Give the backbone structure.
Amino acid sequence: MTPKNFDKTLSAYQRRNPFRSFRVRFVSGEHIDVDHPEAMIVRGGTGIYVSSTGVPTIFDHESVSEVVGVTDRRSAG
């Protein structure tokens, strides 16, 4: 995924109104479920996600394989 596409895609999911949770899948097979619109910062091809327990995940455009719309988790927003 290019840095520009990474920023554009993740920002679009963050700004959906009403917000709906989404999943970011990594090339490693792992994933994060973004459950709140303010839980992630995206800029310059890099993302930082902070879970509800305060655990940060730092990732970049090369580590993401796909972004999947709605997950089975409810939004916190």
